[in-house]
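Input for the complex:
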Amino acid sequence: MTPTTSEQDLEACAREPIHRPGHIQPRGAMLVLDLETFSLAGASANAAKWLGPVSADIMKRPEYAGLLEALRTWRSGELAVFEWRGTLAGRPLQGVGHRSGQHIVLEFEAAPTEGMETLEARFPRLRAFAEALPAAGEGSALLDEIARFVREMTGFDRVLVYQFDPDWNGLVEGESGNGRLPSYLGLRFPASDIPAQARQLYTLNRVRIIADVNYAPIPIESFSPHLGPDLDLSLSVLRSVSPVHLEYMRNMGTHASMSISILIDGRLWGLVACHSAEPHSVPLQLRNVCDFAVQLAASEIAARQRSADAAERLAIGRVHGRLMAAMSGTRHWAVELQASGDALLELVKAGGAAIVAPDQALIRIGNSPSEAEITSVVEWLERSGENAVFATDSLVRELPEAEAFAEVASGLLAMPISELHTSWVLWFRPELRKTVRWGGEPHKLVREAGRIHPRKSFAAWQEQVRCEASRWTPAQIDGAANLRNTIVGIVLRRAEEVAQLAEELQRSNRELEAFSYSVSHDLRAPFRHIVGYSELLRERETGLDAKSQHYLDSIAEAARAAGQLVDDLLNFSHIGRTTIQARPVDMNKLVREVRHSLEFRTADRNIDWTVGSLPDGWGDPTLLRQVWFNLIENAIKYTGPREPARIEVGGEKRRDDVRFYVKDNGVGFDMAYKDKLFGVFQRLQRAEDFEGTGIGLALVRRILERHGGSISAQGEVDKGALFEFTLPIKADEASDV
Amino acid sequence: MSELRPILLVEDSPKDLELTLAALEKCQLANTIVTTRDGEDALDYLYSRGAHADRPEGDPAVVLLDLKLPKIDGLEVLEKVKGDARLRHIPIVMLTSSREERDLVRSYELGVNAFVVKPVEFKEFFAAIQDLGVFWAILNEPPPRSRFR
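Predicted:
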């Protein structure tokens, strides 16, 4: 858990303008020159002690000629840092300079005395260090190597190497010490110890040193109206540090400190922090050697990181390949992923997973929370509007209720698949209980004089970390994103395949209908001829015997029947091809007309009609007339044996549709054959008992389907039948397929 | 009822031709029956040219025109006849094997006078031909001869 320093206090801390302290440490002296003219704009108050009397034209003095010349050369060149060695006011000095706004900041420190080793002498050790780096073991071995080298070079009592975690807490992973100061190896330091603006500064300026914690800051005096107290000293080596930092050092028991930034890809990866119990100074030259060594080490760290990341991505890519192959099967992608559950977990090294897809039941894999818990997580994700991969190593931080299942799902990696439907793949990681040793109680704040004070104790302070899982690596998060792209690709392709199949099916149907139409059309003529000629023959041959007559009649009958069949088929396929002219239809009128046209059938029959008042239907009157005709004709036909026959016609308007029916007390049918009733050419009665081609009901159903309606039938053998059909209420686009 | 004009029959199928003629014979109409076997032949007759250059003068009382014809089909004949001021008054009855909506619409657009689907049942076919023959050849009052040709 991150320490809970109050937000306000942290912000106040981060706002302190440490890059513009207006003071320097007394280790050296500073001159601020105008960038164009080299005239003196400012000087530290102790400059006279180091450099002799200070005046506006100091740079014009003969003693400064060499420095001035060097400065001019540097100013017209490419280097960011100016370096110089020389003697001023009788003192051997090392100087560095840099640009700051419209000024040049020159800083002087004492040049190393004869006793100290020259850079040349140190080079073999530097080279040895460089060679040892790639050979260093994994993890902390490399960092210990760095710590050892820096301590050897600088002579500090203790050198720590620490790495920042994603929350900017620092973990001490490498250390070298002589025992005078306590070991901090394995301790974690809260992010607030190095506030944001300090980290920013450390990224710009890699090395900083405080030779004596009890120094008296030296103010910078202005010699020009252009130089105010806001001189940016980010790149200065003598910059005075924040009093909070000095207090921190004292509390920690250190009198001198130096730190060198470890930068990787321009970001602060960690620090090399050096501490001593007594004041301790390190000359500029030596600081530069250490800086150089640390940058070498940073390259090695970066190279190892990249290589590990690449290896990880390769492994994930292989698992992804297996999943992709699995999903190219015929089943739904979610089902295929479930079948490859092991691979799915391995992809991101999760302990459990869940798949939510719109037309599937929720799928759980491995160790995952309950269905209800997963559903609540998904609902939360949907509400928060996530449409990219979401990763957390502590779900509780975002969703307090998740504590209930933190044991199995402290870490969550969630991948939304579609923007339109709720579909997700979730991975879970179990809680990793660990003990974190902080360098001092991180939550301990002392508020005094209106601001927080750093903690007094840095003794190891243990904290049990709960509800945290191991972090998701960038490679794993990318792996999830790639899987999502694959699934989306598959879903899209499936949809395309289905659409294409549907199109082919439609085309096939149309071709079939066109075919049946043309065949029927061409068959009519021959049947007509057969009937015609047999008639003519019959009229001519009056002397035929009964048998011959019968044969001739049979020929004509057969041809007639075939012709009727063809007509019915033509009619049937015609329905599929015409466009429906839909409008409100007076059903009462249609039924009247149909009864009238069937009068020749009912003339000598005793039929008891009950015809209710019918609501209007919506559709094509011609086709709907055909529906009534077929149904009523059937009712008349199949009540043939009844005395009296009872036929009832009615209809009613309902909420979503309009319903009509024809009921009779005829011979009925066996419900077991209900499904055959509406088939083309399906008959449930014998041909000699009841005439008909068996296409009438198929036609009725086809017409109703094209109107967006439906038909159903109920019957009982020898008791009668009830045919009900519905039509939609409004103009339904389904009527024009 | 003025003098009898011929009935022009345009039919390519020999069987249909025979059956139609048999039906017309039954009507015992006094009108002459002229048969042509394709569209070109029919137009030659109507324009009194080609093989029919020497035919007796006078327009037919009615043309019984089959839809499917070789060389020039029924619809084209219809179009030519109804598009010509000298011929368009001649009544044309289209006869066809089945009721294809396309043909129906097109025929009426071109100005056909009647459209009849040849029924399979011979009795009905026979009755249809008779009715047609009787109506157009006898009952119907044709346009006066003197205005044309």
